[in-house]
Amino acid sequence: MMPFPNRDDVAIKQIIGACGRDHDIPGQTRLEATETETDEAGRTININRTACRKCGSIRVTRWRAPEPGTSSSFFAFATFERPEPGDVPGITERALQVTEKELADFIIAHGFPGGVPAGFAPDRRTTAPEENLDLTLRVRAGQFYLLDRTRSLGDILPVPAYAESAALIDAVPGAALFWPPVRDGELHLAVKISPTPPEPDQTYDEVVELSCRFPTGHAVLRELAGRELPLPPLPAGHGDYRLRFHTKPSGCLLQIWNQPRTKPKLLVRPPAS
Predict the structure, then answer these.
(1) What is the pTM of this model?
(2) Do 68 and 153 have their domain in common?
(3) Which residues pair with 242 in a beta bridge?
(4) Beta bridge partners of 206
(5) For 1, which of 178, 185, 240, 253 is 20 to 30 Å away at the CA?
(6) Has residue 19 got a pLDDT over 60?
(7) What are the tens digits of pLDDT across the range 186-243?
């Protein structure tokens, strides 16, 4: 069952639906391998992945180069993969245009006839101010957590095999585990919650980010020892958020903003020793 839908989900369907099969693929007639794989017989299969410029759908073309001394002709097979929501062109702008009726109809069509539950945080993506918090966490075993209020530590501990990882963060829907540079003791943590993407702070030693979906839009920071620190309601209500974690010995910065999910990123890493 899909997570409870929000405006981003409606916008994705609209953009991909409007594109249909009329994809705008750069280099339509050119085949250059962007990666390779090996088949069961040990032969190299060339793969080209190219995204549609209109909807982000990825054309995946596979082919095996002719053996030396054989005919130069070969067969290529293409399929399409759905893009990561955050890679759909124009998704942020289109989500702002989704009407209340379009959202309500989409929610009902996907099996939620009761509409948005009253306990969910409201969608304030056009009006929410940036919020900044300065917190001191009591870190134990080198970790702390960010949880939707409907989730528990058991959702992320032990870290499931299917969790996404960005080196300093592991996440599953509704729960994220952070690995700060403090093993046991107090950690100064600045938290910035924003309705628009903030710039990363390059003064930190390490900066990583990934996506996490918060089912209610209400989140709490949780210490291993049990203390919970509720955060203000997230700006776009329930849905996907980007978590960008900055670390250095003197303290950490966590940036949170609403953004459709996309792949984890390592933005700043310390030089290899």
Answers:
(1) 0.90
(2) no
(3) 211, 257
(4) 247
(5) 178
(6) yes
(7) 999 999 999 999 999 999 999 999 999 999 999 999 999 879 999 999 999 999 999 9
Question: In this predicted structure, what is the pLDDT of residue 2?
Answer: 79
The residue type at 148: D
CA dist 20 and 91 (Å) reads 16
Q: How confident is the model at residue 175 (pLDDT cuts 50, 70, 90)?
A: very high
Tell me how many domains the chain contains.
Answer: 2
